[in-house]
Structures are given as structure tokens and as C-alpha cells.
Amino acid sequence: MNISREEAYKLLTEYTKSDSLIKHALAVETAMRAYAEKFGEDVEKWGVVGLLHDFDYEKYPSENEHPYKGAEILKEKGYPEDIIEAILGHADYTGVERKTLMAKTLFAVDELSGFLLACAYVRPDKKIANVKVKSVKKKLKDKSFARGVNREDIYKGVEELGVDLDEHIAFLIEALSKNADILGV
Predict the structure, then answer these.
(1) pLDDT tens for residues 132-151?
(2) Distance of CA 31 to CAs 27, 51, 93, 95, Å?
(3) Is this structure's pTM higher than 0.90?
(4) Separation in Å, CA 105 to CA 4, 10, 31, 86, 170
(5) Average model confidence (pLDDT) across the chain
(6) What mean pLDDT do residues 53-78 have?
């Protein structure tokens, strides 16, 4: 199968209408592309994984359905098994082991990307480029801030990926800054 960003985006927007969920998908895509480049991996493939990881969430938000329904749809469309497995593994409750670097990276960037966007939204200038690592770490400790973000998954993702938390946060801030216009930050 030819993995195209255009087809992936079309699939994302077919199932997802919420602006915030589309921005989240674009943020995770941006983060995945940046890490793929850093690790010398397939930037297009990793970007597609980021773009599609939650494409089924709006229609199938329960843990019984997401990301299982999405995986079924991707299988029917002929997406490669490693993409499907990475997407299944991004939800810890599926029990799907994250074996590949791509799967571990998706898990490590998913929650943190959303959290960083939230950090940018509360800034007076709303600019991701001006978000500081120290501020992010302080907000991570504040359970009432962006309460829907699973902090445990952020810490577990950093551990599984084998990166330093501060460096990971700084890397994602820089990566997301490069796509700030599209992300609205």
C-alpha cells in the first residue's frame, strides 16, 4: 500500500469534525515527523501514524471501541500491520505491547503534545514557542490543569522511549513551534 499523507488526512477528516481533535492529530503528526527525522526513520510513515492515531475517537470514544474500530478500518484499507499495531499500542488499556521505536514514540508524544498545546493556550500570547520547560513541568504537577491529560502516560512514555523528560519537552516545543500557524499556537 502506498502510504500517503493526503489519504490519511482525508480519512482523519472523514471521521473527525472537531477542530480541537484535528489540531491534536496535526500536533502528534508534527511530533512524530520530528522524531522520525531525528531517529533517521520514515518521516512520511511516522507522520501518518501521528495523524491517524485518534481518527476514530470522535465516533468511537469508549475504551471498548477506540482504537479498535480505527484498527479495523485501517486493516480493511490495507494499512501496514506496524502502523496498526502502533496505533493500538498508543492506548495503554489495549494491552498491545509497544515493540517498535515508532510505537514507543507515538505513546511518548501523544499526551504530551496535547498538554503542550494546553500550555500554549493559557499564555497571554498563546505562542507555543514561548512555552518554557520549567513552566510545563510545574503545570504537570497541577492536577487541575488540563485534567484530561494522563500524566502517568507522559512519564511512562518518556521512560519507554529512553529520553530525558526535559529534553523531550524541549524537543516537542521546538517541533510544534515549526507548525505553530496550523496548530493555532
Answers:
(1) 999 999 999 999 999 999 99
(2) 6, 10, 22, 23
(3) yes
(4) 20, 23, 9, 9, 15
(5) 96
(6) 97
